[in-house]
Write a structure and sequence with these properties.
It catalyses: 7-aminomethyl-7-carbaguanine + 2 NADP(+) = 7-cyano-7-carbaguanine + 2 NADPH + 3 H(+). By secondary structure, the protein is an alpha+beta fold. Helices cover about 15% and strands about 25% of the residues. The chain has a domain of about 100 residues: GTP cyclohydrolase I, C-terminal domain/NADPH-dependent 7-cyano-7-deazaguanine reductase, N-terminal domain (GTP Cyclohydrolase I, domain 2), CATH 3.30.1130.
Length: about 150
């Protein structure tokens, strides 16, 4: 019997944090319920990147909701990918949309949405939202649960 995870780069083995998001390898696994519409949610409450101008850290809560088709993202590879942004300089909009686009290209989901709820810099919080596809009619998509900015928390 062959190992269904043998093609994965991270699961079950030691993995270094990628130097950049572009260098990160995202793994996918077959969806065992590809015949069913459902939402999978990932929440990254301590997402960090760097301001591309000042080099100062930026912090966000990222919420990724998707309705998988044939593929699921392997969670360890996703964690390493998101961690790679800690030394990456990019604006809030770029980080949020790039993550959504990369996951969409990898997974080809029926629907994907990402909400980036960024903490203020210069007194202004910037929230960024991106989605691909239309939500299937029979799927319940809960609110992302992050209140409009009032000193997040």
């Amino acid at each position: 019997m062959s190992d269904p995870t043998s093609h994965l780069h991270h699961l079950g083995q030691g993995s270094a944090i990628p130097a950049t998001p572009e260098a990160a390898i995202l793994d996918r696994v077959p969806n065992p319920h590809a015949d069913t519409d459902y939402v999978a949610r990932f929440t990254a409450p301590e997402f960090t990147s760097l301001c591309p101008v000042t080099g100062q850290p930026d912090f966000a809560i990222l919420i990724i909701d998707y309705v998988p088709d044939r593929w699921l993202v392997e969670s360890k590879s996703l964690k390493l990918y998101l961690h790679a942004f800690r030394n990456h300089g990019a604006f809030h909009e770029d980080c949020t949309v790039a993550i959504g686009k990369r996951l969409t290209a990898l997974l080809q989901p029926r629907f994907l949405r990402i909400g980036g709820y960024w903490y203020p810099r210069g007194g202004i919080p910037i929230d960024v939202f991106w989605q691909s596809g239309e939500l299937p009619k029979a799927v319940w998509l809960p609110d992302q649960g992050v209140a409009p900015y009032r000193a997040r928390g």
